[in-house]
Amino acid sequence: MVAVRIVEFIGRGPGTRHSGAKVRAALEPEAAHGGNCALDFAEVDTVTHSFADEVIGVLVRARGPDLLDRLTFLNCSPVVRDTLQFVADYSAHFWTTGTFPTPTST
């Protein structure tokens, strides 16, 4: 298992696509071999969708949504958890359908 402390890559937040690519690079060797990965968001208040997409979205769209079963998210604020979930959901949808979900009006 590989564990990554996000604060060491982005400070307290919110992160950029560039810093997300660095986090993803730390995860990819383990993910490529079917291993488990933990992302620790302690001390991180928020993340951007760009950061989350670069870390989670790119991996899910490349390796499939089953990867999410091997990822553990630790110490997430509600804002961070919601952002990660949103990115995971639309990336899994893309893997399944080949298209991104269309926003719906309420």
Quick tags:
mainly alpha; globular
Describe this entry's structure for a reader:
The protein is 52% helix and 11% strand. The chain is mainly alpha-helical. The protein has one domain. It has a 3-stranded parallel sheet with strand order 1-2-3. The termini are far apart.
Question: How is this structure best summarized?
Answer:
This protein is mostly helical. It is built from four helices and three strands. The protein has a three-stranded parallel sheet.
Strand numbers in spatial order across the main sheet = 1-2-3
Spans of at least 5 consecutive residues whose pLDDT stays below 50 are none
The whole-angstrom Rg is 13 Å
β-sheet strand percentage? 5-15%
- The SSE order reads EHHEHEH
Tell me the helix content.
Answer: 40-55%
| Integer count of domains | 1
Q: What is the 3D shape? A: globular
Mean pLDDT: 92
- Helical segment tally? 4
Query: What is the strand tally?
Result: 3
Q: What is the terminal-to-terminal distance?
A: 41 Å
By secondary-structure content and strand pairing, the structural class works out as: mainly alpha
Largest sheet: 3 strands, parallel
Task: Set out the fold topology.
Blueprint: E1 2-5, H1 7-10, H2 17-32, E2 37-40, H3 49-63, E3 71-74, H4 78-97
Parallel strand pairs: 1-2, 2-3
Helix pairs in contact: 2-3, 3-4
